C-alpha cells in the first residue's frame, strides 16, 4: 500500500529508479547504476578469489556462500574456500590487490558489477571486498520460484573512517557469543570499530593473570579470559573490525577498588569499596597521588594491551565528579603543591601519566571528552558524548576538539540506550551541513559510535536495543550526507532487521521469549499487539534513580520486550496522516482496523491476566488505549464529534507514568485524530 | 477442556490428587505428599546454605534465585551466594551433609519440604540439593497477582545412575554456547551424563597441541580449544554432570586419516583420505597392524584424558565394516598370523591395546556394542545401540552385556535423531517388567542415553531435536517404572517445554526464525499452522542416502522448522476421538475448527508463495490437506457420507513422499474420521 503511494507521489521516477526503490541496501552505496536484466543463482554458483588478499576473505566468502544458501535453500556445492584461484571459471570473481590491515585509514573501497553471467567484486584490500559481499547479499531478489541478483554497477566507499559500536560488558556482562553475533551484524552494516567497555563500578571483566583476585572478587564469575578476548579480536579481525578496549579510570572504579582499596581516594580510615549493584554514578575514584595507582595500572596495561593489536586504547576518564578528591586532605595538598587549579587539572595530570604506559605498547590514548583539557596531548582521541542531558550543546566537544587539533569521535546523539526514536539518531550528522569548520578541522572528525550502555540490557534483550537501530547510524557514518529520507529508512530497515536474524541476532526471537514468560505460557498474540505500540520509557526514566533493579536482576518484563520505534506506531501514524488527508473508506478502514484491534486486545489481556501476574501492570495502560479507541471509533464511523471533555480526560490519563515502565507510542497520532 | 475430561473419567481422585494433577513435575518424583496451604514468595525471599557442600551449590542456588526472579519479576534482593550460612533466617534452607563428587554412584537423593513459612531441602550431597532446587522451581504456581509454592513433602532419588545425553559435535560442529545451554537443560531434567562425540568422518573437533594439523586440516576451523573443553567440563561439574568424551575409532576415521593417511588401512599406493562432506557410513579405518596407529592414539589420549576428570572414556568402535581391512593383504596376513578368525577379533585386538593407554590416566574404556567380543575386558562399559533398523532385537546387546558381566548403557530406543514419536522413547524401559535377569545382572544396567547424531542438526535447529523430547527420556531414567501415563506426559511436557526457554534453549524461538526465512519476511501464521501438523521424515528417510545435503549446508528449510510430535497433531487426535465418542456440537466444532483452519491456511500459503520460493515445495502437501479437510467438513456438517472413492483418492495422495521432506502428521486421525 505504502509502496503504491510512494509511486503516486513521485511521478518522475524512471523505470530503473522504480526498481531502485525495491532495493533494501543499507548503508546506501555512494554510486549505484541499476540496469535491466538479472543474474540467476543456481546450486552450481561458485566463488573465486584472486589477487593478494588477507585470508580473511576466504572466511568471508565462505560465510557469504552459507548465508546465500540459507536464504535460497539451494544446497550450493562449493565447500570451504581456503585458497586463491580454486575455480577460475566461477560466476563470482573477487579480486583484492593487497592484504588489508584492520586499522583506521585502511582502504575499504570496492566496486561491484553484476552482469548476466558474471559478478565481479574489485577492491584494493580484502576489507573492501568484504563490504562488497555484504552489498551483494543485500541485492538478492526473488521471483516466486527462483533467486537472482539485479544487474548493477556499484562503486562504494565510506564517508567516515570510524563507524563504531560500543558494548558495555561491565554493568551487565555479555558473553562471548553475544559479542560475536554483534560483530557479525556490525560487519553486515559495514561498521569497523568495536569499542569494548571492560571495567566499571559494577564489574571488572578482563582476566589479569598477575592479579587473579580482580576477577575472583570483582566479576561475580562473569569475565573474559585472555583466551576469549583473543578469540573475539581474531573474530573481529576476520570481519574487518578493529577492537578498542576500554578500562575506565580514574572514576567508575568501584569494582577495581573493591579489590585494591589502597589505591582509592577515600580517606584511609574509612576505606571500604564494594562492587556496584545498581545503576547510577558512583563516587569511588583512583588516587592520582599514589604511586601504586600507576604501578598497578601499568601492570594491567602490560597484560591487556598485547591482546589488542589495534593502535588505540580507551581509558574512559568520564564522570569523575571529584567528590572523593575534594574530601581527601592529602589529595588537596597534592593539588596545591603542584599548582593544579581544579580537579580537571589533577585528572589531566593523572591521564598524562598513562600515556607512556600505553606508548610502551604502541598505543595511543583515547578518552571521553572530559580528558580534553589544555595540557592534554594532541595525540589523544577525544570521544564526544555530552549533550542536552548534560546541559551542554549536543556534541559541542566534537567541534571544540577538532578546533583544538584533536582527532575526535562523536557519540552524543548515538546513545542507543536512551531508547529514543531512530530518526533522532539517523539525522544526527557528525558534520552537519551548517558546520563552520576548516577542511583540516573536519578531517579530524573521524566518525561516530553508537553506545550500548548496559544498565538495562542482558544477553536476552541487548540485541533488540542495538538492532536494527544501529544500522541507521551505520548508514549515517558510511553513506552520503544527503541520504536522509525517513520513509526510505523505515522501509529498508524492515528487511535489514529481518536479515539480521541469519547472523544470529536475537532481537525478534527473544522478544517472543519474554512475551511467553509474561503470558505464563498462554497465547501471546494480544501481548504482541500491545508490545507493538508500547515503548520503554526514554532518557533513563525507566528504573528511575536506579532504585528498583539490581545489576544481578534478570530483565524479563514487558518493557524488555518492547523497543524504541514501536513496530506499529510508525505505520499507524502514516495511516492517520493518509486518513486526515483523504477520508475515503480505504483510508478510514486502515485506521479503524487498528482501533478495533486495540479494543479486542484489551479484552484478551484481561483474560490472560487471570493466570499471569506479570500482565496486571499493563492493564491500566491497555484500558486507556481501549477507551480512547472506542471513543474515536464512534466519532469516525458516525462522522460526529465526540464529547471533547471525555476525550481530553482520556488523553490526559493516557501517558501517566506507568508501573510497567513503558509508554504507549501512538499518543501523538491519536491526538491528531482527536483534534481534527 | 482436556483437564475437565480427565477429571470426569477419574472420579475417585481426592482433593489433593486433583491438585497433584496441576503439578507439571518432570521427572516425576519418587514420593510426593501434597498438602493444603501455600508458601507465598516475596522480594525478600532468601536462601541459606548449611552443611559441608561443594561450592557448586552456591552457583546453583544463585541461578535458582535468578530463574525464580525472571518468572516472577519480583526483583529479589539477594545477590550472589558465595558462602555458607549467610542468612540463617532465610525462608529456603538448603543443607548438604557433604561435598558431592560428580561421578557415577554418587548420592543424588534429596528431600524437599514446603511449609507455610519455610522451605527445606535436605540432601547428602550438593548434587541431590541441586535436584531439589529444580523440583522446587517446577512447583511454582500462581494466582492472578502472586506466586507461591504449594505445601508439599517430597523425597526423591534416581532409578538409574546413568541418565545421559550424547551430542555429536563432529558431523555438525556445535559451539560452546550450544553445549552449555543444553547442559543447563539436562540439569533441569536431573540428567547427569553428557557424552561428547568429538571425532568422526566429518570432523576432528578437539585441539591436540602436539599435532595442530589435526584441527587445521580436519575441522574447517570448527573445533574446541582445550581451554574451551575445560570450561565446558567445569560448567557441567557445577551442574552435577559428568562429561564423557568420545574419540570414535577404528572406523569413522576419515577426518583423522585425512591428516595422518599413514595409519589408515588402505593399500599404500592408493592412499587418499578426505574429510567427509555428506551423511552415511564411510569406510576409512585405522590400521590395527601399524605401531604408529597406537603411538598417535596414545599421544592424543595423553592430551585429551586430562581434560576430563571423569572415570570413563568412550572409544566408539561402531560400524567398522572392515572393508579396508579385507582389501589390504598386509592386514589379512596379520590376521592369519595372529589367528584372528574375523574382523571382530582383529578389532578386539585393536581395542584391547587402548585399555592400558586409558588406564594410564585412570580411565575405563567404554564403547558401542560392537566392542563386546569374547576377549573384551569386563571393565569396559558396553553401549547398546542397535535395534530394528539394524535387523537385530532392540537393545539385545544390553541384556547380553548384563549377562556377560559387563556394565551397560542403553541408547537403542533413545535415538532422538530418528524423529520418532515421544511415546516410543518414553515407553522404552532399560529394564522392562518382563525382563528375565537376576538382580546382579540388572544392577549392571546403568541406565540410558539419548543420542543426538548431528547429520541433520545445526546450532539453529538442534535444540528442537533434543527438547522437549529428552525430558521424557530423563523421566524414564529417573522416575518409577510405573510412571507411564501418556496424557500426563503430554500435559506436563507443554509446561516443561516452555520453561526450557529460560535456560536459553532455542527450540521455540528458532522455529520462528526458520519460518520467517521461508516466508521471506511475510506473515508466518499460515506457515506456523502448517508446521504444527507436519513432521520431518523419520528413520533417516530425509536426505535419503545422504545425497542432497552437504555437512556444510545450512539447514533452514521447512523440515527444519518442523519437529517430531507435531504440536497440533496430538491435540487433533484427541479432538477426533472425543468427537467419535460423542458427536455433540462442542466436540464437532473442535474438529471442524481444525479443518477450517487448514482450508484457510492453504489459501494463505498460496498467497505467500508468490514472493517466497521456499514455500513452493509445501503447496502440494498443503493442498492435499485442504482437499481432504473440505470433503470431511462437508461430510461432518451435512451428516452424510462423502464419496469413498474421492476420499480414498485423497488419502492415497496424502502421504506420498514430498520434496519438502516432511509428512503430514494427522493422517491417522483423518483416516479415523473418514472411516467412521
Automatic annotation (TrEMBL), chains A, B:
GO cellular component, one term: lysosome
Glycoside hydrolase family 20 catalytic domain sequence ranges: 160-480
Residues at the active site: 319 (proton donor)
Ranges where the Beta-hexosaminidase bacterial type N-terminal domain occurs: 24-156
InterPro entries in UniProt: Beta_hexosaminidase_sua/sub (IPR025705), GH (IPR017853), Glyco_hydro_20_cat (IPR015883), Hex-like_dom2 (IPR029018), HEX_bac_N (IPR015882)
GO annotation terms (biological process): carbohydrate metabolic process; ganglioside catabolic process; glycosaminoglycan metabolic process
UniProt keyword annotations, A-Z: Glycosidase, Hydrolase
Keyword Nucleus part of the UniProt annotation: no
GO terms of molecular function: beta-N-acetylhexosaminidase activity
Family: Belongs to the glycosyl hydrolase 20 family.
Ranges that cross the membrane: none
UniProt protein name: Beta-N-acetylhexosaminidase
UniProt-listed Pfam families: Glyco_hydro_20, Glyco_hydro_20b
Superkingdom to which the source organism belongs: Bacteria
